[in-house]
Amino acid sequence: MEEIKRLREMMKSYTAADEDFDSDMNHGIKKPSLAKYHEGSKRIHLPKNFEKILQNNNFYQLLTERKSCRKYSYDTISLQELSYLLYATQGVKKVIKDQTATLRNVPSGGAIHPFETYIYANNVSGLEEGLYHYLPIEHELEQLIIADSFKKTISEAFLGQTFLTEAPVSFYWSILPYRCEWKYASKAHRVALMDLGCICQTLYLAAESIACGTCMVGAYDQEMADTLFGFDTTPGDNKDVEFLLGGAGVGLQ
Ligand SMILES: Cc1cc2nc3c(=O)[nH]c(=O)nc-3n(C[C@H](O)[C@H](O)[C@H](O)COP(=O)(O)O)c2cc1C
């Protein structure tokens, strides 16, 4: 019960102005980097001409036809379609001067954008099967080296929800909580969860607009998934800590 009380309090709104937080930002500590990079990884350019792939521009229809889709056709997803979904959910529209913040296609409290996007390409034309990390500023993918057992283990980590890895592509979002703690201190976590809701709904609507379907997945074994992605699972206040916060399968309906 104490735990529930504590978590309910965490969800409640805050009233402090930005400058009232006892945060690293207000102590003059340097802002953490805007995005994560895997030095030395192979980069893949993503095409950006999306007009040709858009199949439905009717917003009302997209809203009302959106549903969770857990069965996908065996058809391949094109690199352009994947590029569009990455751009819609995390793509950068503007880098604020001196790389102090990014403005993206989704909103984020304080323009912090604490999430990183990973994708598992199962059947994407032009991509070798495997795990990739999205670079939102460059709009590129980094190809990551993974164990052969990755695909099988990710299904286990997501509690047997095999539709994720059977999908032509699956998305995984991790959070680097220090990015928002730097500004919002102990009030960062509720803001970050709201941010993920924006990303998730944008994926649903963007997928629908190119005749694809998606399903958000929030049920998974945290430790197993984090270990698989190579994240440090030690609890603590480490500023570099990163952990998984959900996934989604995507494919043609
Ligand atoms: C945050 C979140 C977590 C979810 N987690 C799962 C999940 O782990 N497995 C699953 O099959 N569906 C999951 N869903 C999909 C919901 O079950 C689905 O949205 C709900 O049943 C309503 O159906 P609809 O999306 O078709 O309207 C999740 C949805 C959200 C928004």
Quick structural gist:
The chain is α+β, with helices and mostly antiparallel strands. 30% of the residues lie in helices and 20% in strands. It has a single domain, classed as NADH Oxidase (3-Layer(aba) Sandwich).
Number of helices: 8
Mean pLDDT: 95
Which series of helices and strands comes N to C? HEHHEEEEEHHEHHEHE
The overall strand count is: 9
Named once each, the bound ligands are: flavin mononucleotide
CATH topology: NADH Oxidase
Residues in β-strands, percent: 15-25%
What spatial form do the alpha-carbon principal axes imply?
Answer: globular
What is the share of helical residues? 25-40%
CATH architecture: 3-Layer(aba) Sandwich
Features:
seven-stranded antiparallel β-sheet
Q: Describe it for me?
A:
This protein is of the alpha+beta class and 253 residues long. The chain has a single domain (42-252), classed as NADH Oxidase. 30% of the residues lie in helices and 20% in strands. It has helices at residues 2-11, 59-65, 79-90, 150-157, 163-166, 178-184, 188-209, 222-228, and strands spanning 42-45, 92-95, 102-104, 115-121, 130-135, 140-143, 169-175, 212-217, 243-252. The strands form two sheets. A seven-stranded antiparallel sheet has the order 1-6-5-4-7-9-8, with helices on both faces. Helix 3 packs antiparallel against helix 7 (188-209) and helix 6 crosses helix 7. The protein starts with a helix and ends with a strand. 36% of the residues are buried. The protein binds flavin mononucleotide. This is SagB-type dehydrogenase domain-containing protein.
